[in-house]
Amino acid sequence: MTSALDEAPLPVEAAVPAKKRRPLWKRVLDNWSVRIGGSVLVVLILMGIAAPVLGTIDPGAIDPGSANLLPGTRGEFNSLDGNTFEHLFVMGTDSLGRDIWSRTLYGARVSITVGIAVALFTLVFGLAVGLMAGYFRRLDGIVMRLMDGVMAIPGILFAVSLVALFGGTLPIVIFAIAVPEIPRMARLVRAVVLSVREEPYVEAAIALDTPTWKILLKHIMPNAIAPMIIQGTYVCATAILVEAILSFLGVGLPAEMATWGNIMAEGRAQFNQYPHNVLFPGIFLALTVLSVNVMGDGLRDTLDPKFNKRGE
What we know:
Blueprint: H1 4-7, H2 12-15, H3 24-30, H4 32-49, E1 73-78, E2 84-89, H5 100-135, H6 137-151, H7 155-166, H8 170-178, H9 182-196, H10 200-207, H11 212-249, H12 260-267, H13 276-303
Antiparallel strand pairs: 1-2
Helix pairs in contact: 4-5, 4-13, 5-6, 5-8, 5-9, 5-11, 5-13, 6-9, 7-8, 8-11, 9-11, 10-11, 11-12, 11-13, 12-13
Subcellular location: Cell membrane
Protein name: ABC transporter permease
Keywords: Cell membrane, Membrane, Transmembrane, Transmembrane helix, Transport
């Protein structure tokens, strides 16, 4: 004879085992946007790193006799040091006889380096400013008004002014592009801190007299990592594009340095007759920015709490 207790249905938790949540890295890699964007970006980075072994020559080498060759032309390259060798000009040459293929691959090094460096610079300083503004109430008004003042300055105008004052070196260009992006990152981190610092576990840590630095690092900062990574991808894409704009306008890195903006700037005068001088670096620039943005969208869908249920 069974009792009513024995006949009672099992609780839902006991009848149906809880669904095991997949590790975060698996959910990230399962996202097709991350796969596609990340794969294209990795290929472009590897091409830049392996540029010396991918059929390139000195990107700054000039041969007036090989000027304005069409893509796919095989001819002799006469360098200024007297060396002559046969070379396949995959993407043709510019008006000075420089190999576009070589300049484009070496330009990938510069553009991607700028993008990653600006993103890291923005993440570090944006995190520091956002944590201070969001956690210390007395600093909030002062710090955020300073950030609002920086945001009021157009990024391109700030970069042009800074490069004009201090010269177009790589560190100066990275700094000039990164500074206008810091307030956006700081506001993002501050918003996360404002929502987390009122949580019971943070108040309990304060009540237990936990050091402030430990509260910030162990309880608050982990909540800001995901949105920062997402925002960092967009900062990286923006930095690559801004660097190309500055170089195209002639106020970025020196003209003799192989960057996608410099290549397009030098080819625009003869674009009607020789469009390949602008077309190929433009394609590489578009692919890089697009791949970073696509990867950022995939990371947002996976890491953002509003979207991550799609991958479960």
